[in-house]
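Dear support,

I submitted the protein below through the web form. The confirmation email said the job was done, but the results page showed an empty box. After a refresh the structure appeared. I'm attaching both so you can tell me whether what I see now is the final result or a partial one.
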Amino acid sequence: MLFVEVEMPVFDHVYDFKVEQREKVGKVLFDMITKICQKENCNLEGDEEKVLLWNVEQKKILPRDWTIEECGIQNGTRLLLI
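What the results page shows now:
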């Protein structure tokens, strides 16, 4: 289990998430979107597949079919939901 910070610029807010190292990025991303939308009382409009996770430190998009571990995510990693 890792703890990461996820920034969502549209809400100008940073969220803390627990993620499993062996989960696929696509699943983690879906769970994050669901939880953020519940908290902010919003609906995600459009194609969910166009939403991406950007690793701020590595300056790269996380591939949906890779695991969190394969992406090199560690405790405290800062991600951007775009």
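Response: this is the final, complete result; the empty box was a page-load delay. The radius of gyration is 12 Å.
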